[in-house]
Write a structure and sequence with these properties.
The protein has 139 residues and is an alpha+beta fold. Helix content is 34%, strand content 9%. Strand 1 and strand 2 (37-42) form a beta hairpin. The longest helix has 11 residues, at 113-123.
């Protein structure tokens, strides 16, 4: 393939070449100069995860189950991220995150928060895209 150097140093790469390389508009590429050659490579960038919206946490001060007194193993970062998903926001208002595993199983049918995530994914209530937007990496 040959191309012409345009003004301002721009090089136009044909769409079929970009498509073959898997490069889209807005992708980052690295440029390496070796002798008289220019090497272009697509740079795979990990998507930056926004900080968890801790202001959305439901009762973060509760560290023990209000009914049994059992110490809770809460993942406040995960809870805050889940609070941006409507179904988990509604569950939180019913005490979902402030229960021991045993009481959560009795009240909601899920032993762990991860079980609930998987259930709602399988049911189609939430999608992997919902989790991605919330900053949650899932299996």
């Amino acid at each position: 393939m040959e191309t012409v150097l345009e003004c301002d140093g721009k090089i136009r790469i044909p769409d079929e070449v970009l498509k073959k390389l898997g490069i889209n508009v807005g992708d980052k590429i690295s440029i390496t100069v070796e002798d008289e050659s220019i090497i272009l490579k697509k740079v795979h960038v990990e998507e930056e995860v926004p900080p968890p919206p801790l202001h959305l946490l439901y009762r973060p001060e509760i560290t023990h189950d209000p009914l049994s007194g059992e110490k809770l193993d809460r993942n406040l970062e995960l809870e805050a991220r889940l609070m941006t998903i409507p179904v988990f926001n509604r569950l939180a208002k019913r005490g979902f995150f402030i229960m021991s595993e045993k009481n959560r199983l009795l009240a909601f049918g899920f032993r762990t928060v991860e079980d609930a995530i998987q259930y709602f994914l399988d049911k189609g209530t939430i999608t992997l895209e919902d989790l991605r937007k919330a900053g949650i990496k899932w299996k």
